Amino acid sequence: MTSTYAVLSEGLEKRFGDVHALRGLDLAVPEGTVCGLLGPNGAGKTTAVRLLTTLQTPDAGTARVAGHDVVREAATVRRLIGVTGQYASVDGDLTGRQNLRLFARLLRAPRARGDELLERFGLVDAADRPARTYSGGMRRRLDLAASLLVRPRVLFLDEPTTGLDPHSRGGIWDAVRELAAEGTTVVLTTQYLEEADQLADDVVLIDGGRVAHRGTPTALKAQIGSYVEVVLPQDAATQALAAAAVVLDQLTGSEPVLDAGRRTAGAVALDPSLTLPRIVRELDSAGVPVVDATLRAPTLDEVFLRLVARVS
Questions:
Q1: N or C of the chain: less Cβ packing under 10 Å?
Q2: What is the CATH number of the domain that holds 79?
Q3: 221, 237, 267 — which closes off a domain?
Q4: β-pair partners for 81
Q5: pLDDT tens string for the chain (312 positions)?
Q6: Where in the numbering of this chain does the ABC transporter domain appear (predicted)?
Q7: Do the domain assignments include residue 307?
Q8: Domain match, 82 and 213 both
């Protein structure tokens, strides 16, 4: 590759009838990094992945993956990438070992590579059982193993942990971290914002088929300031919660979110000079009884809700 970017697209567009799925998508993913693509349902994440992996062709714009044009050099791109879609593509009637040997034959990969991946993903004990007997997490791990048979330069993961329990999700996360550490570039679409926060070096927020915001998780969080939350006693009057909301509104300049059941009030503080002692003093002056007060960095969920115009 002559570029330091493993994925580079400019002005990608795609229509499906009257639906404009992508409206000029510009994407630049440096080699050896994990890029998280986030966005509400229908934002264009999966369409972007399908174009970048040569499964569909763009109506306009260009894209290069691993240094090769996805339209003119589609066959070369396919040899250099791995893809794991939203649903496991393994054959349930074959064993785990047979699935990997079949894929290895199709991809002209060494047969021993499949056995190596069975061990890597903790599937050795189940290797000779039909894949239909596997749990959801085991099937996803087998699917991921199949996508790694050719040691891809770029790995595309389209919502790889959807529907998995926390333990299985953690196993996939560990595998992604290992791949990134070994130099594989990973493009990850996900609706689990914690997943992007944990794994991504850079996050791209897509909305309406365009890039709405991009940056590291830390930089995106900094764009919306800090998050203030105050906790009142459970027996506090409703008026006290309303008074807390007034104080937070004045201090932060953003509309507070109230949870009457938990007796909490929270708001985003854009002013970086706002301090916790000042918040507590103002609440005390307003006669608001406070059990706890915190000033913290926002979660990626809160960033998503504020920065992306539409929500799923």
A1: C
A2: 3.40.50.300
A3: 221
A4: 154
A5: 345 899 999 999 999 999 999 999 999 999 999 999 988 888 899 999 999 999 999 999 999 999 999 999 999 999 999 998 766 678 999 999 999 999 999 888 888 999 999 998 889 999 999 999 998 888 888 998 998 888 899 999 988 887 778 887 888 888 889 889 999 999 999 877 788 888 999 999 898 899 988 999 888 877 777 889 999 999 999 999 999 999 999 998 888 989 999 999 998 887 778 899 999 999 999 999 999 999 887 777 777 777 764 444
A6: 7-233
A7: no
A8: yes
Length of the chain (residues): 312
Same domain, 91 and 105: yes
pTM, entire model: 0.77
Residues spanned by the domain of 253: 226-296
In a domain, 91, yes or no: yes
